[in-house]
Structures are given as structure tokens and as C-alpha cells.
Write a structure and sequence with these properties.
mainly alpha, about 0% strand, elongated
Length: about 100
């Protein structure tokens, strides 16, 4: 599973007023944004499959709030794993739903 679409990108235009941040990153052909996609894909690849599905759905839904939430979940997962911690995605806790 990948976070961003694959294939050639040809549109270097700036972000459109009605365009979400994820859609802009996915569309933009500039090398700077290609590097951002590469880093985010590397973080995404480290996630457990169930978390990948959740992150991808939130990223692609068109809601910038959900995109930012997905970004921070990936960032924090990568940070804590890089620091040597084990991360459990949505752990089952006693006496909770």
C-alpha cells in the first residue's frame, strides 16, 4: 500500500484555493514536493497494515484536519520508533470500549 498515487506528475502550479494539502502534495510536480512525498512514503511504509489503512483513508478524504491528524500520527510513530520505543496502535485497554 502507498500513501500517494504513482505515475508522472506534470503540474507545478501553486496550491489552488479549494485544494487540500494532501491533494496538492499528491499533484505537484516540483522536485521539492517529490522529496516531501518520498519522506512521507518512507514513514508510511513503517506503519502496521491496519494503521496504514486508517492513515491513508484520513489523508485522502479531502479534509485538511484529517490530513494533519494523519501526518502527526505518522510523524509521532516514526519519532518514537526512531527513539527505540515499541508503539502499539490502538491497544486494547481493560475496562474500556
Amino acid at each position: 500500500m502507498r500513501l500517494f498515487s504513482t505515475g508522472p506528475r506534470t503540474d507545478p502550479a501553486i496550491c489552488r484555493p479549494t485544494e487540500g494539502q494532501y491533494a496538492f502534495y499528491d499533484r505537484n510536480a516540483r522536485p521539492y514536493f517529490a522529496r516531501i512525498r518520498e519522506v512521507l512514503e518512507s514513514w508510511f511504509a513503517l506503519l502496521p497494515p491496519r494503521m496504514q489503512r486508517h492513515i491513508a483513508a484520513n489523508a485522502r478524504c479531502g479534509d485538511d484536519g484529517k490530513w494533519l491528524s494523519a501526518f502527526w500520527e505518522m510523524y509521532l510513530y516514526r519519532l518514537f520508533r526512531g527513539l527505540g520505543y515499541q508503539v502499539t496502535y490502538e491497544p486494547q485497554l481493560p475496562h474500556t470500549k
